[in-house]
Amino acid sequence: TLGTQTDYRDGEAQTDPYSPEYIVPSGSVPELLTLATLTWGRGLPAGLAEVEMIERAREKRAWEATLPAMDNASQIAKRRKMMDDMERKEWAFREQEIEKLQEVRLEALKKLLQWREKNQNELDAKRLDDHWQNHQKAKEEKIKKIQRDCALMLRKLIAKRHNVMGKLERGDIIREYTDFASQTYTPLSRIGYFPDNHSERYVVKNLYLNTFAGLCELEASLPASVTQVKVKAPTPKHTTTKTGFIKRSARLEVELAQVHQ
C-alpha cells in the first residue's frame, strides 16, 4: 500500500539487464554460449538479423556434425569438397550482405541528393521570386512616372486649348481677387515681376525725417506742450507721516468709506 516517487523517470534510472554468472559442465557445449558476444544494445533484444544469424550458426553446426572423419584417407576428398561448397555458400552470403549494405548506402545517398536538390530548388525559387518582385516594383514605378507625365502634358494641352487663336482676353478683377493663386496675390517672375528687387520703394521717405533742416522745422512747428513736458506731482489720497507711511487711522477711514459705499 506504499509507494515512492523519485526525481527521475524510470527510463532514466533503468540499467542494463543483469547477466548472472554461469558454470559450464565438462564435456558439454551449451548452444546459448554462442550468443555470448551479443550484449544489450548490440544485438539484444534480438531482431530479424540476429535470428537469421542464429539459424545460420545452427545450420553450420549441423553441417559440421555431418563432415567425414579425418582418420579415413578415402573420406578426405569428400570432406574437402563439402568444405569447398560451404566456403562458396558463405562467400555468396557475404556478397549478398555487401549488396544489401550497398543498397542501403545508395538509398541514403539518393535521399541526401534529393534533399539537397529540394533545398537548392527552394533557394532558386526564392531568388527568382525576389528578382520578379524587384522587376515588378521597377515596372510600377515606371508606370507611375508615365502616368504623372501624361497628366502633366494633358493639363498643358487643356490650358493651351482655352486660347487656341491667341486672342486677348479681358481681365476679370473679381476672379483675380477671389482666387488667391492668381497673379494679383502671387505674381510670377517669368512675367517680369521680382518681389526681392526694388524693395526700397516701400520705404517711407519724408523730408522732415531724413534731413536735419526738416527735423528743425518740424520741431519748431510743434507746440510747446509737446516738447516741454510738465509733470504735476499727485496729491496723496491718505494722510501720511513724514516718512511716507500711511497712518492706521487713515486706512480705517478708507475701509469705512468703502463699507459705507
UniProtKB/TrEMBL annotation:
As given in the record, the signal peptide range reads: none
Origin, by domain of life?
Eukaryota
Does Cytoplasm appear among the keywords?
Answer: yes
Q: Which UniProt keywords apply?
A: Cell projection, Cytoplasm, Cytoskeleton
Please give the Pfam families that the UniProt record associates with this protein: CFAP91 (PF14738)
Answer yes or no on keyword tRNA processing. Answer: no
Cellular localization per UniProt: Cytoplasm, Cytoskeleton, Cilium axoneme
Q: Residue limits of the CFAP91 domain?
A: 4-156
A GO cellular component annotation in the UniProt record:
axoneme
Primary subcellular site in the record, as a coarse category:
cytoplasm
Family, per entry:
Belongs to the CFAP91 family.
This protein's name: Cilia- and flagella-associated protein 91
Give the organism, scientific name: Eurypyga helias (Sunbittern)
